[in-house]
TrEMBL record:
Main localization (coarse): cytoplasm
Protein name: Peptidyl-prolyl cis-trans isomerase C
Origin organism lineage: Bacteria, Pseudomonadati, Pseudomonadota, Gammaproteobacteria, Alteromonadales
Domain PpiC residue range list: 1-90
Function in brief: PPIases accelerate the folding of proteins. It prefers amino acid residues with hydrophobic side chains like leucine and phenylalanine in the P1 position of the peptides substrates.
Length: 92
């Protein structure tokens, strides 16, 4: 089964997501922004979700992690939890 490791930042609104993405584009640190803004408990680890299997996450999230280029920040990605910025660091 395919596995991946990704980091993410979860926020309530698309606008907030886009504002954070703009900060990242200017060179801000993903982990620091995750700790500051993310609503997910993973924020304590800088947004690190660790390794997970394909199908463990909701479809919209999985589609980004398993299909989009590695090491790029993708989003906003809307799920039932809110809006995500996602950075995949590896997958198999």
């Amino acid at each position: 089964m395919p596995k991946a490791c990704a980091y993410h930042i979860l926020v309530k609104t698309e606008k907030e997501c886009l504002d954070i993405k703009a900060k990242l584009a200017k060179g801000a640190d993903f982990g620091k922004l995750a700790k500051q803004y993310s609503l997910c408990p993973s924020k304590k680890r800088g947004g690190d979700l660790g390794e997970f299997n394909k199908g463990d996450m909701v479809k919209a999230f999985d589609d980004v992690v398993f299909k989009k280029p590695l090491f790029e920040v993708h989003g906003p990605v809307k799920t039932k939890f809110g809006f995500h910025l996602i950075k995949t660091v590896y997958r198999s």
